[in-house]
Amino acid sequence: MLEVKRLSKYFGGLAAVNELDLKVDQSEILGLIGPNGAGKTTFFNMVSGFFPPTSGQVFFKDRDISRFKAHDIAQLGIGRTFQSSTLFMKLSVLDNVLTGYHMSYRTGFLKRILHSPSARKEERRFREKALEILEFMGIGSLRNELAANLPHGYQRILGISMALATDPKLLLLDEPATGMNANETRTLISLIRQIQNRGITIILVEHDMKAVMDLSDRIVVLNFGKKIAEGLPSEIKENREVIEAYLGKEEEAPLDAA
Amino acid sequence: MRAGKFICIIIVIVILMLLPLVVRNPYYIHLLIMVGINAVLAMTFILMLRTGLISLGIAAFWGIGAYTSALLSENAGLPVWLCFPSAAIITGIVAIIVGAFLVKQGGFGFIIQTLAFGFIIVLIFGTFEVFGGHVGIVDIPRPEPILIPYVGSIEFSFISKTPYYYLMLFLVLLMTLTLTAFYTAWAGSAWRAIGLSAYLAESLGINLFRYRLLAFVIASTVAGLMGSFYAHYYVSLVPASFGPFKTIYVHVYAILGGINSPIMGPIIGSLIMTFVPEFLRVTEGVEPIFTGILIILLILFLPSGLLGLTRLWQGRGKPHEDAAQPSP
Amino acid sequence: MSVFIQLIVDGLAMGLVYVLLASGFNLIIGISRILFIAYGEFYMLGAWIIWGLMIPLKIPFFFALLVATLGPAVLGAIVYQLIFRYIQFKEQQLLTNIVAAMGLMLLMSQATLFIVGTESRGIPSVIRGIIDVGGVRISYEKVVLIALTLAVLIGLHVFLQKSKIGRSMRAVSFNPDVAALQGVNANLVYLGTVAVGCALAGFAGGLMAPVFAVSPKMGGVTLLIILVVMLGGVGSMPGAILSGLILGMTLSFGQYFLESGVAQIIFFVVIAVILFIRPGGLFGQAEQIPLQ
Fold this sequence. Notes:
The complex is a heterotrimer.
Chain A: E1 2-11, E2 14-24, E3 29-33, H1 40-47, E4 55-60, E5 63-64, H2 70-76, E6 78-80, H3 93-99, H4 109-113, H5 117-137, H6 152-165, E7 170-174, H7 182-197, E8 201-205, H8 209-215, E9 218-223, E10 226-231, H9 233-238, H10 240-247
Parallel strand pairs in A: 3-8, 3-9, 6-7, 7-8
Antiparallel strand pairs in A: 1-2, 1-4, 4-5, 9-10
Chain B: H1 3-22, H2 26-50, H3 58-74, H4 80-103, H5 107-127, E1 146-148, E2 154-156, H6 161-184, H7 186-196, H8 198-203, H9 208-234, H10 244-257, H11 264-279, H12 287-301, H13 305-314
Antiparallel strand pairs in B: 1-2
Chain C: H1 2-30, H2 39-54, H3 61-88, H4 93-116, E1 130-133, E2 136-139, H5 140-162, H6 164-174, H7 176-181, H8 186-208, H9 221-232, H10 237-257, H11 260-277
Antiparallel strand pairs in C: 1-2
């Protein structure tokens, strides 16, 4: 589904991502882990079109999207969340998700301006679908609440809901469990599994080791922008290099807490 | 729209239509007409502002519409009623071409270049003979009289100011409706999204450039239409009126009213800025000094404008009129 | 041939003044993040200070020049402290900065018109005499002008690159938060930058005063500065140097061969073409200040 070949991103002389080769298969959940600054978010930014790669290529469904712009990539079917709670804070939860339906409009330009019946019908349909997503994610009751007023955990969920509205084939989740307690994380894990069951491929960047080990079909480990390990969760747990990479940074939870 | 609000608006419109029967002094009619023009210009400013575009070239497009219309009617002999839409369309085309270049620039570049564009347009109007040089154009044809059939021969001829007032009213209403239609449609929600968080909007598939350009072109076309009206109302044009100085005033109308209200804010701001100096008997030379001070005070103490104040006080917000809740 | 050299000298002299102005403007944009539309007014202020000190008060030029430099700097600092300081760290900073600067421009330009009237005044040449360089006659005035502006520009460059204050200024322009962590007082840097920028404007105005007439409409130079900055790339010093010189040369040669108005239009056309090819300006890739 997604393939990345010798992907690199240099900022000045510093390599944030260094000759990365990666493959993600359809309907799998790929866990992407590594200490802070390992290049995970930069990787996401390149795949989703926010940064152009310095060198290397990104293939989505066998199509070279390396130089595509972010909105085109979104329309091709890659959705993402952001590390900090990037939401439309001043809008309601429902309005936030509705924005995700933007590129799905079929009614013509003129009809939309004139608020023709077909335009309104389409808007009703999107509204229904948005509510569906909200229900699925468990925040249906919060639909009219202002995004800024949501507790942090729900904000992360809202972020995922918005990405889902774009009907993605590939979903990039950037540390969705940040700031969540154990309960919320459990709910999140189950939600992500259900998303996978709907046929959506997922790349999950996460620091919560339990979540990553639980969910991922495969794991790739990055450090200093390079891939240092790849394999099944059980293999990664034992991998010497990975453990060292983590022990080298005190803020990371040691792997065997998973 | 709620019934109550709808009725209010109808009442206001009726009052506005009956106003000339009460207000006899043509000077005040003139002021009202200018309020209308300025209000619409301020609306175009807010339209662009919401998508993150701070345009310093609004008066330039106002001018392009005005000069185009004047030339079309004087030199090309086009009937004035045809000039209005033609000038608007031509302004729109210029906006597409210029806008495609300007909008690509990114925040700062856009601002600087619209400022430069604003100055350059004035220079062009002032230099070339076809535009009348710095003397400008005089004796622009007025709109042809409208005959209303069936009701005897009532003729609307545009000699006095009153018929212009009604035309202005009509245009303002038309523009307000058009802008509102855009705001409440999908374009409006895209603009709102871009304004709130451009990155997020992009990740949801919204093409920033396209929507910003759309806002720019609509805003400029509307400004051009108002320019066209102005040309045939004021009957003479001077290049200096269309420079960044004017744009500054347009910004003030918008900010005074409150940039969170795309329709009411400009109307209120424009109303106050036009009439208050009148009542305070401020002389022309000194007025810009006061305006300059006012701008600074406004920015420091009342950045959300007057409507921002009332909204704060009432603690409410309307989903479409203002996409963003004002910050305290 | 000698005419050619004279035109070059003229172009150099004018160009360097524009480089000065563009540098100051760039500093304020790049570091303090203010599109300081009132900048031209400070240039004009410098010129009027020279006039005011030399004609009625008969104060010698170089002393007046000092005041013409410091005066605008002080005014700029006051204006920053009273107005811009409160806006810098708030929401919608870009818009409010611009509008505040526009308000300031209105205020200053109208106040000047009010105080001095609409007439231009002249200042007799300060430095008389002509030197003869291999058959070409160049006035001392221009030589001194060129020498002074070069000196100031070099001094500015050294200041920004080497001195501690200069380096903190550059740090703040890249990343105010990180700079703050290193103990740099961002507000002080913003304040200082505006002061330095306005000082440069006043200095340029003071230098130009004896060369051209002093008019209450001098604030209009802002447009040219903006164009120079656009051409060179917003925030780029080398760009400012190159495009300032281009403007100087274009005006010098243009005014000689064509009418003065046409020379300006040629400059605009040149800019338009260059910007079309390289939208960021000559040394483009202006820092992408994101719209959000």
